[in-house]
Amino acid sequence: MTRHSLNRPVLVVDDEADIRDLMEMTLMKMGLDVDTAEGVAIAKKKLDENKYSLVLTDMRMPDGSGLEVVEHITEGGHDTPVAVITAFGNADQAVQALKIGAFDYLQKPITLAQLRTLVKSAVRVQDENNRPLAAAPAPPPVADAPPPRQAAAPSAPPVFSEQSRIDVFVEPAADAAAHGLKHEYDIPRILGKSQQIEEARRLIRKLAQTQVPVYISGESGSGKEQAARSIHELSERRDKPFIAVNCGAIPENLMESEFFGYKKGSFTGADQDRLGFFQHAHGGTLFLDEVADLPLAMQVKLLRAIQEKTVRRIGDAQEVKVDVRIVSATHKNLAALVQEGSFRQDLFYRLNVVSLHMPPLREMHEDLEQLIVYLLKKHHGGQGVKMTAAARDALLHYNYPGNFRELENILERAVALAANNVIDVEDLQIHSEPVSLAGEHIIAEEPNAALPGFQMGHTQLQDYLDDVERQILQQALTYTRYNRTQAAKVLGISFRSMRYRLDRLSIE
Ligand SMILES: Nc1ncnc2c1ncn2[C@@H]1O[C@H](COP(=O)(O)OP(=O)(O)OP(=O)(O)O)[C@@H](O)[C@H]1O
Question: For residues 165 and 137, what is the distance between their CA atoms, to the nearest angstrom?
Fold first, then answer.
């Protein structure tokens, strides 16, 4: 049974229904009772009428600021711990809230791990409040408040860092059961038993029960799309469409019509009405893959559609309501792109209400062997493929910059090359340890964010460029439904050049 010393409800104050729902669900799973308020006035009224164990309040709400809620609690003599939720990068607000009596703050986007840590420190604050005065430690001076916690560092120390007695939190039974095999079957797309992948699956299950926008980060080939599909398949929207859009593959001049659709006759070539991605995804999930590649102009339009929950087709005077859950992903560092100015901050917050990280395969080392056996069986089961010890060793020591996708490709290629169905090390065509020209071993560079999968001293330039070109050509062909003339146009090359490139790279 879950034990905690928060025996009264937690009050969540936020004007956004999605966030209230997510927090309520998460806190309830921790065994806490939850009450909600959608603005400052309602929060104050509820605080006057009821007793709460903890208050979590957003800062910016249409009818006032979270600071007013903090003041109401401290000035009203309530001894309820209150924490504020601030916008990313808004350290001033956080410090101000701490000065007037908040015990901690969270930065958007909130991660579940952060929420858990915060509730644990609230238990500590309550314990301190309930101790005789003489025993209470002095509160930390506000000027020493730690820098704002970043979403990627949920384990950052809480404001009250001294070790005091905390009742132990035990995860509810459903979470513990998630480690059992039975629960693995609900997410068949995502294999692996390592702690990181278990954590990803656990979050996927939770997020599937909410409507909040989810942002999935992770390297190329680490399973971001599989995670997005799993969220959809486990959600109430499972019988409605899942529309995956590769934002990087749509030419800029076609973006608006692709996302929002058009009316017949609205421009040359619009010879019939057409629905956009939003309307196709109505009732279901719209997965914006490679969302970092959206041009700024399109980011504005997308933000508007997501906020208003309406779209207007090109050439149409009418706006149409759409009910779409947004899941987005990119292998790029979206927060860095916001800093750089190439991704809008407001859209970033809107997409990144909760983030999910898919671990790279090299961090799932304990799973590798089973995955290799599984993939060989799955794809080539009937052929009785075997592997030499050297090949097995090379596979287990390789670091897979292209993650699962690369592992699948390596195995597929190896099976094709293997003599007598025995895969040997050269059939893998990998170099498990990059070696310098002088023959010394060199340490693999961190994967380059701008050049995913490229490793200095390891990747051959021509192979890398061919791979990029192959992906672009394939995306253009998929996009134009294999019309080579149109695909050439979309890519801004001549038909001859297209044919030459397809031949050179043996693309059918
Ligand atoms: N945990 C996993 N278990 C099994 N297969 C996986 C897992 N993660 C990824 N894959 C497989 O790897 C391939 C790539 O997965 P996916 O397309 O979801 O990756 P991605 O992160 O979206 O890639 P990109 O960034 O290139 O779009 C797919 O064939 C998928 O089935």
Answer: 13
